[in-house]
Amino acid sequence: MKRLYTNSSKFDKNAVDNLGISELVLQENAAMAVAEVVRQNLKSGSKILAVCGKGNNASDAIAALRMLSVEYECYALLLKDDLNHNAKIQLNIAKNVGVDLLDFECDFSKFDCVIDGIFGSGFRGEMEPKIANLIEQINGLNALKIAVDMPSGVSNFGVASQVFKADFTICMGVLKLGLYSDIAKDFAGEIIQANLGLNESKFSYGNSDYLVLLDDLELPNRALKNVSKGDFGHAFIACGDMSGASKIAASSALKMGAGRVSVVNLTQNSLNLDPQIMLKNSFDGADAIAFGMGLGGASFDFSKLINRLCVVDADAFYQPWIRDFAMSKLAILTPHPKEFSSLLRLCEIGEFSVDEIQNNRFKLAREFSSKFPSTLVLKGANVIIAKDGVLYVAPQGSAKLAVGGSGDALSGIILAYLANKFSPLKAAINGVLAHQKSAQIYKGNDYSFTPNDIIEGLAWL
């Protein structure tokens, strides 16, 4: 896992005030990281433009131009006259070594690379129309685009109506939470964490959120040989009106390593189950239970399951009893944004549209998990797992997973981890990672991916 922070200002200040490293040294290291990405992706002699605001992002961008000026044609466009002290120092040096200043009337089409040093992580709200129009022009260029720290228009609170669309974002010192929102996913490009001259453990400190990566995936352990199916748990799935959902969840749980998988039919409909899946008439003997997927109008007293390890999904989030499961440390709740809207309403946190949720995913997930002891898995392009006010963001989500039944497969995967005696938090994190990795290793076209491919991919994690 890697730590995520909203910004690095307090760490920059600590490095200067307490560790004795000057701000200009930090900026030199930041600029070197930007320059290195340019050198790796552009041939010598290419034309580079840095578009600069007035803060430290401008300083980093201008310093990078100075470093590149021997090998490239370098230009700066200043959007503000009142540069901060460090930016003025960097600009004076850059002009002395051949970096030229341009104005808004320049021909942007001639540039091979544009460096975004406008706002960084300090952006809030909306930008003035002049800057928004400029960013729109730059986004239309066939040029390498590099954002310093964060693409302009992206913040920890969502995105502006116009956002710099980067090929690379060079994140300074620490990784920024705002880069991993669903909305930022199409603007950040490849995210690179720049070392500012200090070991990260010395630079950053204190509480944080976390970025969970595929390398963090822990698979169910079958190292012992003297075992039986009972050692790997008995997973139960409630089958409602739409039986396909429970069948996908059951197959996923079996493939992810649950020792036994059973389905409890809550309807009068006949089921044609895979022979590997057992049919039960109660939840007796279950080590972990999943319900809600495909529930529809099926009737059952779910209060009987409140003290059981369980994965709660889909239709359950529209039922008033969902609050009881939100209060349970044994429950993992797996809503998509629309279902999360209902969950927030029923748990009396507030009324939020899907758009409001997507623009405030981190805030609302943190608020929910601070108030309710269950483990939250908020589905999306970047899945958020939240527990006790701490966010664990899994950014490896793929457009392949945007298909009906994908969430049912995720529930089954998480269920298998619960049956294998993983804690709810560890089951949620590893289940999400396994789900995402299964999509990544799929070799077909994105549009051809199905829940069956998720299940098949679990064999090769």
TrEMBL record:
K(+) binds at N57, D116, S152. Residues 8-204 form the YjeF N-terminal domain. (6S)-NADPHX binds at G120, S121, G122, F123, R124, G125, E126, D149. Residues 212-461 form the YjeF C-terminal domain. Keywords: ATP-binding, Isomerase, Lyase, Metal-binding, Multifunctional enzyme, NAD, NADP, Nucleotide-binding, Potassium. Its EC number is 5.1.99.6. The keyword Transcription does not apply. It catalyses: (6R)-NADPHX = (6S)-NADPHX; (6S)-NADHX + ADP = AMP + phosphate + NADH + H(+); (6S)-NADPHX + ADP = AMP + phosphate + NADPH + H(+); (6R)-NADHX = (6S)-NADHX. Binds 1 potassium ion per subunit. PROSITE patterns: YJEF_C_3 (PS51383), YJEF_N (PS51385). InterPro entries: CARKD (IPR000631), Nnr (IPR030677), Ribokinase-like (IPR029056), YjeF_N_dom (IPR004443), YjeF_N_dom_sf (IPR036652). The keyword NAD applies. Its cofactor is K(+). Belongs to the NnrE/AIBP family. In the N-terminal section; belongs to the NnrE/AIBP family. Bifunctional enzyme that catalyzes the epimerization of the S- and R-forms of NAD(P)HX and the dehydration of the S-form of NAD(P)HX at the expense of ADP, which is converted to AMP. This allows the repair of both epimers of NAD(P)HX, a damaged form of NAD(P)H that is a result of enzymatic or heat-dependent hydration. NCBIfam families: yjeF_cterm, yjeF_nterm. This is NAD(P)H-hydrate epimerase. It comes from Campylobacter porcelli.
